[in-house]
């Protein structure tokens, strides 16, 4: 007999097809099962009492519901909560919950490690192992939601999801889209489109593809206002330079009236935080607004750099961060500064590293670099 189907791999459409084609059942049975899984956190078919005995036995035979294993979890003093979730072999990924006035945001990983090698990101130093499956992505939401006692539509503790954990979500397109479908489904976690945000380092063709299949909020990791600097910080820029990236972001925004795009900009001391960078960024953002033909189509989110062992970058001083924001605001560009949360548990942006069985040898190179600096292996 073939392996059992993990129902967490399927979105509503996939689950309906499974019920119809594999089990020979009515499609609406899939809806009942989704509610058991995502609204009541039940993974044992025997407890799904509104399904007949025969169907429960059939499910037992052909299907299973496997959620990621929590290896370790850690609350932060500021209410942030981090989970280390075990994947196959020795791999582990991280998810972080960040509560904030009236909202609760979960930061979700999409890959074990990351292949993009952005210079200022801790995940990059871990190298890359593989894509996460749909079950492993939506499983992060499931684990956090259960921990929080979240009841979709009634007791909302988890109000937002950001695909800003480990990995490049658009490099794992199908699994990420399927998982986001479940996040946004009333029978899943019931989140509105705009409360699910996908953040990308700029995989241009995939941004267009995303626009064809869903309507989530889009964040672009920009980090530099010109190609020379951006290519250094985000090597993917050599393939998809800023002009092409902004064009695709503009196409995404224009599909639906009133859509804005967030541009993330990590501020690193002396690297990209100078007044001329802010002015250049303001010009880019004006150009973007013009392309979309909407004021404030571009929103800038400034992220003070979060350091990690062995990095050559430093956080910009507070006054430079404020000055950068002020320059943007005076140029009438919307700019917010992201407050750092969870840094006492290494859960802040860019600090997630999990445990990656690296296939790219980048980890070995980074360990060597640490050793040369006299920083122990354990820090990696
Ligand atoms: N690969 C995706 C999603 C992961 S990163 C992307 O690039 O958008 C989520 C955000 O954190 C990105 O904007 C990323 O550039 C930023 N980030 C990475 N390392 C950081 C660090 N050390 N300090 C602050 N922000 C960082």
TrEMBL record:
Q: Which residues bind [4Fe-4S] cluster?
A: 114, 118, 121
> How and how many cofactors are bound, per the record note?
Binds 1 [4Fe-4S] cluster. The cluster is coordinated with 3 cysteines and an exchangeable S-adenosyl-L-methionine.
**What InterPro entries does this protein's entry cite?**
Aldolase_TIM, Methyltransferase_A, RlmN_N, RNA_MTrfase_RlmN, rRNA_lsu_MTrfase_RlmN/Cfr, rSAM, rSAM_sf
| Amino-acid positions noted as binding S-adenosyl-L-methionine in the UniProt annotation, renumbered to this chain | 167-168, 199, 221-223, 306
Record keywords: Zinc included? no
Q: Which residues cross the membrane?
A: none
- Pfam families, per database record: Radical_SAM, RlmN_N
Q: Which cofactor does it need?
A: [4Fe-4S] cluster
Taking the record's annotation, the residue ranges forming a coiled coil are none
Q: Name one GO molecular function term.
A: rRNA binding
Q: What is its main location?
A: cytoplasm
List where in the cell it is found. Cytoplasm
Tell me which domain of life the UniProt entry assigns to the organism this sequence originates from: Bacteria
Show the catalytic activity. Answer: adenosine(2503) in 23S rRNA + 2 reduced [2Fe-2S]-[ferredoxin] + 2 S-adenosyl-L-methionine = 2-methyladenosine(2503) in 23S rRNA + 5'-deoxyadenosine + L-methionine + 2 oxidized [2Fe-2S]-[ferredoxin] + S-adenosyl-L-homocysteine; adenosine(37) in tRNA + 2 reduced [2Fe-2S]-[ferredoxin] + 2 S-adenosyl-L-methionine = 2-methyladenosine(37) in tRNA + 5'-deoxyadenosine + L-methionine + 2 oxidized [2Fe-2S]-[ferredoxin] + S-adenosyl-L-homocysteine
EC annotation from Swiss-Prot or TrEMBL: 2.1.1.192
**Cellular component terms, GO, for this chain's entry?**
cytoplasm
Which UniProt key words apply to this protein?
4Fe-4S, Cytoplasm, Disulfide bond, Iron, Iron-sulfur, Metal-binding, Methyltransferase, rRNA processing, S-adenosyl-L-methionine, Transferase, tRNA processing
Q: Which family does it belong to?
A: Belongs to the radical SAM superfamily. RlmN family.
Q: What else is known?
A: Reaction proceeds by a ping-pong mechanism involving intermediate methylation of a conserved cysteine residue.
According to its UniProt entry, the function of this protein is described as: Specifically methylates position 2 of adenine 2503 in 23S rRNA and position 2 of adenine 37 in tRNAs. m2A2503 modification seems to play a crucial role in the proofreading step occurring at the peptidyl transferase center and thus would serve to optimize ribosomal fidelity.
The record, for NCBIfam families, names: rRNA_mod_RlmN (TIGR00048)
Q: What is this protein called?
A: Dual-specificity RNA methyltransferase RlmN
Natural source organism = Noviluteimonas gilva
């Amino acid at each position: 007999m073939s392996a059992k189907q993990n129902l967490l791999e399927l979105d509503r459409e996939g689950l309906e097809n499974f019920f119809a084609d594999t089990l020979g059942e009515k499609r609406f049975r899939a809806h009942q099962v989704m509610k058991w899984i995502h609204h009541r956190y039940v993974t044992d078919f025997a407890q799904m009492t509104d399904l007949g005995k025969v169907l429960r036995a059939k499910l037992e035979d052909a299907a299973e519901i496997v959620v990621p294993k929590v290896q370790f979890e850690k609350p932060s003093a500021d209410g942030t909560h981090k989970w280390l979730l075990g994947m196959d072999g020795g791999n582990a990924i991280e998810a972080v919950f960040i509560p904030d006035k009236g909202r609760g945001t979960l930061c979700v990983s999409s890959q074990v490690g990351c292949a993009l090698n952005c210079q200022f990101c801790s995940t990059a130093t871990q190298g890359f192992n593989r894509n996460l499956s749909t079950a492993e992505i939506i499983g992060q939401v499931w684990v956090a939601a259960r921990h929080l006692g979240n009841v979709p539509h009634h007791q909302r503790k988890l109000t937002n999801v950001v695909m800003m954990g480990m990995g490049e979500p658009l490099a794992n397109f199908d699994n990420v889209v399927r998982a986001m479908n479940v996040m946004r489904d009333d029978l899943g976690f019931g989140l509105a489109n705009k409360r699910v945000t996908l953040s990308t380092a700029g995989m241009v063709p995939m941004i267009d593809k995303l626009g064809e299949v869903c309507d989530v909020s889009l964040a672009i990791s920009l980090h530099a206002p010109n190609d020379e600097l951006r290519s250094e910080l985000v090597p993917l820029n050599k393939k998809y330079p800023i002009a092409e990236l902004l064009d695709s972001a503009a196409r995404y925004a224009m599909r639906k009236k009133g859509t804005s795009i967030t541009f993330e900009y990590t501020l690193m001391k002396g690297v990209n935080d100078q007044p001329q960078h802010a002015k250049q960024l303001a010009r880019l953002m004006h150009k973007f607004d013009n392309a979309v033909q909407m004021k404030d189509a571009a929103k800038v989110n400034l992220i003070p750099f979060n350091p990690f062992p062995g990095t050559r970058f430093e956080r910009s001083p507070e006054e430079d961060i404020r000055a950068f924001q002020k320059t943007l605001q005076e140029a009438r560009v919307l700019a917010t500064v992201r407050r750092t949360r969870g840094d006492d548990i290494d859960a802040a942006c860019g600090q997630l590293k999990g445990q990656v069985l690296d296939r790219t040898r980048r980890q070995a190179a980074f360990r060597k670099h640490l050793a040369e600096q006299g920083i122990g292996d354990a820090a990696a």
